[in-house]
């Protein structure tokens, strides 16, 4: 048998059985261990829930420690989480706080709906047509820098201390920022989409309604979700003057008697309502625009 034949036989039937068995048993691919700080990583629902609970638990723990290590005098002005939750329960159980919560929700949602009905069409037109933006852009930009709270005396003179003035303040607090965001969302639609529609013979109206609006809709919903949070921040300001009901009015009455637990209960209630509002917007967006979540 020649040397080349022996060498070929060795290649076909390797004598190192240990190395072959190790190769057979070793996995083809070992997934890297998931790290805590990974850019844009995907989280499972369980892990996201655990992290959210850990964040909330840490917040309430720091709050409780701050109360515990305060002096007896300062503890009156910095109540513990249990005291605030007890005050919130008492408000619902004995003070008809639910009516105040519903009234505040009515003011926020109605004013924001009116602002959206104006801001979304105006923003779409400004983002789609340069002459419209040149016409309205300077006005919108200037109004964005005017604080809504500065209109309170004027609104009281015009409408009096009633719901109309409060709705108007909440309306002014978000509309110009919302217009600017919708303009940016509309301009973010790729030009190729518009050019493709025009090339295939779509009219300007069809291009706007069938191409630009569906493409910009998910981003516009995100802008709406973010801006309604601003409405909640303006709520207490709107309910300061002449309000007989609402979360802000309850907080202002508590402030006159130094009932800090009730004030903080009102703040906590606004935060809870804000979280539920955010969840509502996310759910509506996911159900009405499923194509935005399949990418």
Any overview of this molecule?
The structure is a single chain. With 295 residues, this protein is mainly alpha-helical. The protein has two domains: 43-78; 80-293, MetI-like (MetI-like fold, Orthogonal Bundle). It has 13 helices and no strands. Helix 6 packs parallel to helix 9 (163-187), helix 6 (97-128) crosses helix 12 (247-256) and helix 11 (204-238) runs antiparallel to helix 13. The chain starts with a helix and ends in a 7-residue tail after the last helix.
Record keyword descriptors for this entry.
2 domains, 77% helix, 0% strand
CATH topology of the largest domain: MetI-like fold
What does the largest sheet look like? none
What's the number of extended β-strand segments?
Answer: 0
Overall pLDDT metric: 85
Helix content: over 70%
Assembly state of the chains shown: single chain
Q: Give me the CATH architecture of the largest domain, please.
A: Orthogonal Bundle
What is the CATH top level name of the largest domain? Mainly Alpha
What's the SSE blueprint?
Elements: H1 3-12, H2 17-25, H3 45-68, H4 72-77, H5 81-94, H6 97-128, H7 130-144, H8 152-159, H9 163-187, H10 191-199, H11 204-238, H12 247-256, H13 260-288
Helix pairs in contact: 5-13, 6-7, 6-9, 6-11, 6-12, 7-9, 8-9, 9-11, 10-11, 11-12, 11-13, 12-13
């Amino acid at each position: 048998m020649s040397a080349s034949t022996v060498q070929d036989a060795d290649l076909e039937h390797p004598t190192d059985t240990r190395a072959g068995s190790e190769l057979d048993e070793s996995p083809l691919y070992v997934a890297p261990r998931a790290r805590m700080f990974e850019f844009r990583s995907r989280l499972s629902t369980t892990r996201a829930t655990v992290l959210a609970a850990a964040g909330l638990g840490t917040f309430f723990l720091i709050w409780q420690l701050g109360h515990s290590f305060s002096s007896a005098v300062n503890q009156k002005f910095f109540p513990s989480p249990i005291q605030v939750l007890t005050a919130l329960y008492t408000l619902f159980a004995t003070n008809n706080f639910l009516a105040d919560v519903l009234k505040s929700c009515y003011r926020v949602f109605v004013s924001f709906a009116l602002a959206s009905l104006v801001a979304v069409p105006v923003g779409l037109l400004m983002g789609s047509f340069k002459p419209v933006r040149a016409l309205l852009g300077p006005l919108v930009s200037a109004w964005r820098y005017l604080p809504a709270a500065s209109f309170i005396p004027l609104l009281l003179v015009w409408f009096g201390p009633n719901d109309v003035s409060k709705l108007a303040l909440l309306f002014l607090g978000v509309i110009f920022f919302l217009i600017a965001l919708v303009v940016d969302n509309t301009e973010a639609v790729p030009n190729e989409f518009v050019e493709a529609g025009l090339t295939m013979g779509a009219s300007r109206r069809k291009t706007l309604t069938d191409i630009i609006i569906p493409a910009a809709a998910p981003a516009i919903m995100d802008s709406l979700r973010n801006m309604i949070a601003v409405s909640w921040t303006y709520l207490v300001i709107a309910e300061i003057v002449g309000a007989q009901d609402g979360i802000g009015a309850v907080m202002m009455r508590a402030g006159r008697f130094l009932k800090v637990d009730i004030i903080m209960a009102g703040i906590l209630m606004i935060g809870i309502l804000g979280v539920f509002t955010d969840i509502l917007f996310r759910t509506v967006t996911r159900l009405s625009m499923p194509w935005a979540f399949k990418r």
